[in-house]
Design brief:
Helix content: 40-55%
Distance between the termini: 60 Å
Structural class: alpha/beta
Order of helices and strands: EHEHEHEHEHEHHHHEH
Radius of gyration: 19 Å
């Protein structure tokens, strides 16, 4: 459909998982894509396969955000889409056992998203158009869907999106967020200490587990999030601002019917 034809897009964290699929889909839809990541070898491979431009950058460093946006803007003098996708996995622990350094790492990605919005917003405001999409999580919607520091960071991302939407919307710049549920990526392996390459290789092991955590009986896929992001980035969503789209197969809405029915049957037998 070429829904993004003529648009210049920046995607952070585009070397693997959800971000990589976004890069692929955005290119397929006609966008000129710039994507960032810290693994140069992987980034170069994705660039070669997709035709997108890789920029080695750490999203938590403000100077890298400035450099990324400057390089993308230099192409055609405009940036139409920013996707703040990069994030950090985090192992689970009690509050009393969580090193503050891990908390700081999680919140640094909120700072990074803020920095990218800060430096792209003057350009988008001058253009009188643009779309910013921030990737949150169901962990930011409720308690129990991720480690505490990760949940806090994702809740901040969702609220940052709302705050920015009400400020930038007056200049026709839209800001929205997406909250993925259980998506098959390497983030689960990373959260348990695997190095990034090993984590990416282990992601298929999570498919069976993730197929059972929501009413829709399959694991979430990077394509599910890429499709939602494409919609928000495109002109089809020109009147969508300040929204959070939950893409989780119904996970956060409650228990699956089969679980409720099984519990009710067990209670019935107990009371007989």
């Amino acid at each position: 459909m070429m829904r993004l034809k003529g648009k210049v897009a920046i995607i952070t964290g585009g070397t693997s998982g959800i971000g990589r699929r976004m890069v692929e889909r955005f290119v397929e839809e006609g966008a000129t894509v710039f994507f960032t990541g810290r693994r140069a070898a992987v980034g170069s491979e994705v660039a070669k396969l997709t035709g997108a431009t890789y920029i080695k950058a750490d999203v938590t460093v403000e100077d890298d955000a400035v450099r990324t946006i400057g390089m993308a803007a230099k192409v055609n003098g405009h940036v139409d889409v920013l996707v703040n996708n990069a994030n950090s996995p985090s192992g689970a622990s009690r509050l009393q056992d969580t090193p503050l350094e891990l908390f700081d790492v999680a919140m640094a990605y909120v700072r990074g998203a803020f920095a990218h919005i800060k430096h792209v917003s003057p350009l988008m405001r001058s253009q009188r158009q643009g779309s910013i999409v921030n990737i949150g999580s169901v962990a930011g919607q409720g308690v129990g869907y991720g480690p505490n520091n990760y949940s806090l960071a994702k809740a901040a991302i969702i609220h940052l999106s709302r705050c920015a939407a009400l400020e930038l919307g007056e200049d026709n710049v839209r800001v929205n967020s997406i909250s993925p549920g259980g998506i098959v990526t390497g983030i689960f392996g990373k959260s348990f200490g695997l190095d990034p390459d090993a984590a990416d290789a282990s992601k298929e092991r999570m498919t069976a587990v993730l197929s059972k955590v929501q009413p829709i009986p399959r694991a979430g896929l990077p394509d599910d999030i890429a499709s939602a992001t494409l919609y928000l980035a495109s002109d089809e969503a020109s009147f969508v601002n300040g929204a959070d789209i939950v893409v989780d197969g119904g996970m956060i809405r409650g228990r699956r019917f089969s679980e409720v029915a099984t519990g009710a049957q067990a209670m019935r037998m107990l009371l007989q």
